[in-house]
Amino acid sequence: MFSTLVVPARLNGVVANLQCRRGVHMRAIAPALGSQTWHDGSRNTTQRRILAKRWETQRRAYASSTAAPVKTTGYGGAMPPSPAKATKTTTPTKTTSPRKPQSPPLIPAQTPTSKATTVPTLRAKGKLNPPPFTYAPDISVPARTPDQNVVKWLYRAGRAYLTFYKTGISHVRQTSKLAKTLRQKAAQTPNKDITEVLSRAEWQIVQRSRLDTLRLPAFGFLVLLLGEWLPLVVMYITPVIPEACRIPQQVQRALRKREDKRQDRLRRIALDAMRLMSRDRPPIGSTSSDTPSVTLPKSGQVMPVTTKNWNEMTLFELSLTAAQLDCYPALFDWLPVTAPKFLLQRNVRKKLEYLKTDDKLIERDGGWAALGKQELERACVDRGLPVLGKREDELRKALAKLEG
């Protein structure tokens, strides 16, 4: 009976104790659960507000991008948008953010002086440099393949050279016709010098066409006589060939011989300097012991040329200037005597007058910087500067140093 009454009562007490503890635990965690619920609710509210703002921003951007352009009335006021187009842009149909319009590629802004300096430079080049047909045309000789017959290759190469010479003859004739027109143009104003009427390029055309016109008959006869075999002999008859009909190998060979001959003349004159200076008596007021020191020129060295006039130079100075400017009489390279003074004076006078006129025209019509590559090389050759193996920038520096 005791066990019947005590055991159920004990079980009831245990159950009541568990329920009491459960109630205490629930009351303890109730504030925490309430704060967590409040935090989740506030976070959801904040997210909804942010999403609403983003949605409104996207809707406005989409509406502004799809809206029609505003039409203006004749009185300067803006017309209101049409109702149909306004209703189309009230709500966006896409849930994703619209693609941003791509900005145009950045174009570097031109400097204000670029346009102003380009046009005068082109004009200066046209006034300074003769047209392309006054030069030798391009030549393209076919290369020989390993399995090609020698006779066939020689025939094709000869045909290429023959085409080159025909084009060169055409260039010489065009230059001659243009020079004739320019002479007639200069003759219309007899009271002015030809350099005042013509530009530097036109003046050079007149000067060069005379000699090429004299060479043309003999060269035409050689073309008819030899045909495709003419390139085998042109290397040895360069003075007879017009400049517009000279192949590149021929031009390089002529320049090399010219520079070598120039150095040989300068060495020979330097070794014979004492005898040359003794043939001219020193001017009044100077002593005979005042003899300038002379050094042997090195390979590629430019000997200083005196700045005196041609009629004030001594025999040594005339010989040195003529050798430097390549106007020394070629006959006296083979004779063991010195060229006479009057002949040297004539050659030096003509060359200095030509260079003085050319310098004046270059400065007038655009300056040295506007010279083309072919005219730059020609100007260096005329002034006794070495050209072979030199780059264009080196030639410009040497020419600027000489003219400066």
Offer a concise description of the structure.
Mean pLDDT is 76; it is low at 1-9, 66-98, 103-121 and 288-294. It is built from twelve helices and no strands. By secondary structure, the protein is mostly helical.
Summarize this structure as a short list of keywords or feature phrases:
404 residues; mainly alpha
Beta-strand percentage range: under 5%
Structural class: mainly alpha
Portion of residues in helices? 55-70%
Distance between the termini: 140 Å
How confident overall, as mean pLDDT? 76
List the helices and strands in order.
HHHHHHHHHHHH
Oligomer: single chain
Poorly predicted runs: 1-9, 66-98, 103-121, 288-294
Count of alpha/pi helices:
12
Number of strands: 0
**Radius of gyration of CA atoms, rounded to a whole number:** 47 Å
Major sheet, described briefly?
none
Q: How would the global form be characterised?
A: elongated
Overview of this structure, please?
The protein has 404 residues and is an all-alpha fold. The chain is built from 12 helices and no strands. It has helices at 2-66, 83-88, 114-128, 150-187, 194-197, 200-226, 248-271, 273-278, 315-324, 341-364, 373-382, 392-403. The radius of gyration is 47 Å and the shape is elongated. The relative contact order is 0.07.
What is this structure's SSE topology?
Layout: H1 2-66, H2 83-88, H3 114-128, H4 150-187, H5 194-197, H6 200-226, H7 248-271, H8 273-278, H9 315-324, H10 341-364, H11 373-382, H12 392-403
Helix pairs in contact: 4-6, 7-9, 9-10, 11-12
